[in-house]
Design a protein that fits this description.
single chain; transmembrane helix
């Protein structure tokens, strides 16, 4: 247990170093790209990429099953079964990628010609850019089994290194396109596609050289494994469609009812949201394999305990970032972009509220995912998502502000995280409502106790000045840390964390003495 906990801590550290560097470079890269391409071209690229993202729901049919089954089989330790699982799943993903290309060429080009608000003089370039995004999408789909192998082995070091390489390549591309006077959008799409091809190729070569199960063998294709994964994943089809509608369908809706500039604002908001979500995602990426592996070997109590503790820690991590971002959205965005698109500040503030509720949705889903009981979630979550997206569409038809997207998404995150997921956990996975609401209520108390201090500081200082900005950030971090330590954690958990840190420090001291 202690060894596994230390592995989680070690992997989390690697992922956080990766995240910090990636976030800083990625945000700066977005600023350079926005200045080089302009708001209109940037909005066009995001719209075209949204078509590919919307169509990539085909990939989600088996992607969650791929990660779950490879991690599950790795936990059991049966090598031959693991090899057969990988080869079977890679074959299926190759088939899915072919379907994806066909759908993209038919549906995507029709949308560009008939539905999207793209200037006539930019139409040909938009279609060529679309082809580059299709190539990237094709390779990304076939990459899923290789990424799942790395996560199953909990090799977060290589995951961190490649993430850093990826963002620095994108930064180089952003600076390079400024050297071209014309067709910058086309050059940007081509270079970005080349960078993605290089990164994905490295992942595959690394897996093939280091993990025996990742060597593809056609004769290891197992129909029984395919049926098991298909049975597990067929329900996630609905979830995949709804997620694609939410993530990329909103981009298309904004383009249909508003200008490409508003699409650019929403895309920039999503980048901020993704950067913030990495604070939680990195910790969950390190903890989730242990939750699944413990469930696979029958340690149900250990799996449940780790999930509930990691949920509280994940919420505190998100709150530690969300509070300063909400208070400092305007100075942050002006520092980042200089010229801030309309609606972007409000988009970011409301998305932080959405992210707090989404922590429960994502963490509780891990227990459903480990058990393999996806049917109920696949029916309830997409139903909520479809209602939300239809409501937004109707409100746009009635002439409402684009802000309705934010309000609708907060409502969706609340329903899925605090109503739907707890219901499924209690009804079908074996959790008790008492232990779930114990986690939720502790997180709510942490929020209530954490907000007053940064709010009071925010009222008294000029947040556009470095000193005022820093004081608000420090007040938020200190408040969440104290409230999270004494309200978000039990006394036993504080002792457990302290013991892990002491063991780590003692181990380093002993190693130094030996040297």
């Amino acid at each position: 247990m202690k060894q596994n906990s230390l592995r989680i801590v070690k992997n989390t550290i690697f992922l956080y170093i990766r995240m910090a560097c990636m976030m800083l470079v990625a945000l700066y890269t977005s600023r350079v790209i926005l200045q080089s391409l302009g708001v209109q071209d940037y909005g066009i690229y995001q719209t075209v990429g949204g078509i590919v993202g919307l169509l990539s729901f085909v990939n989600s049919i088996l992607s969650s099953g791929t990660s779950r089954f490879l991690t599950f089989e790795f936990g059991k330790g049966i090598t031959e079964r693991l090899k057969a699982t990988f080869s079977t799943l890679l074959s299926v993903h190759i088939g899915i990628s072919i379907v994806f290309v066909i759908l993209a060429e038919i549906v995507g080009l029709w949308l560009i010609d008939n539905k999207l608000n793209i200037p006539v003089e930019q139409l040909l370039i938009a279609k060529i850019v679309f082809q580059f995004t299709i190539v990237t999408g094709f390779l990304s789909i076939t990459q899923v089994p290789y990424t799942a192998v790395i996560i199953a082995h909990e090799n977060m070091k290589i995951y961190a290194y490649m993430g850093l390489l990826e963002v620095f390549l994108k930064l180089g591309i952003a600076m390079a396109i400024d050297c071209f006077a014309e067709t910058r959008l086309l050059i940007y799409a081509a270079l970005l596609c080349g960078a993605q091809v290089s990164i994905l190729s490295f992942y595959r070569i690394y897996c093939i050289r280091n993990y025996q199960e990742s060597k593809f063998c056609r004769h290891l294709f197992d129909g029984q494994i395919l049926r098991e994964v298909g049975s597990f994943s067929v329900w996630s089809t609905f979830a995949g469609i709804s997620v694609a509608l939410l993530q990329y369908g909103t981009m298309l809706l904004l383009n249909m009812f508003f200008s490409p500039a508003l699409v650019a604002a929403r895309a920039l908001n999503d980048q901020v949201s993704n950067a913030v979500n990495q604070f939680v995602q990195n910790f969950r990426t390190a903890a989730n394999p242990q939750i699944v592996k413990r469930f696979a070997v029958g340690d149900y109590d250990g799996s449940r305990h780790l999930l509930l503790v990691s949920t509280r820690l994940s919420y505190c991590l998100m709150l530690m970032v969300a509070i300063p971002v909400i208070f400092l959205a305007s100075p942050l965005l002006h520092l980042w972009l200089v010229q801030v698109p309309e609606y972007l500040v409000a988009f970011v503030q409301w998305t932080m509220v959405q992210n707090l509720f989404s922590v429960f949705d994502a963490c509780f889903y891990t227990a459903i995912y480990a058990k393999g009981r996806l049917r109920e979630n696949a029916l309830l979550a997409p139903a909520i998502d479809v209602v939300i997206i239809l409501a937004v569409y109707v409100l746009f038809l009635q002439g409402y502000s684009p802000m309705v997207i934010c309000y609708a998404f907060v409502a969706m995150a609340f329903l899925e995280g605090l109503v739907e997921k707890p219901f499924i956990l209690c009804r079908y996975v074996g959790y008790s409502l008492k232990e779930i609401w114990y986690v939720v209520l502790r997180c709510m108390w942490v929020t209530i106790l954490s907000v007053p201090l940064p709010y009071l500081v925010w009222r008294e200082v000029d947040t556009f000045q470095p000193i005022g900005f820093t004081f608000v950030c420090l007040a938020a971090v200190v408040s969440v840390f104290i409230a999270g330590s004494f309200v978000g954690m039990t006394g036993y958990e504080r002792l457990e964390v302290w013991g892990l840190l002491q063991n780590k420090l003692n181990k380093k001291k002993n190693n130094r003495r030996q040297l």
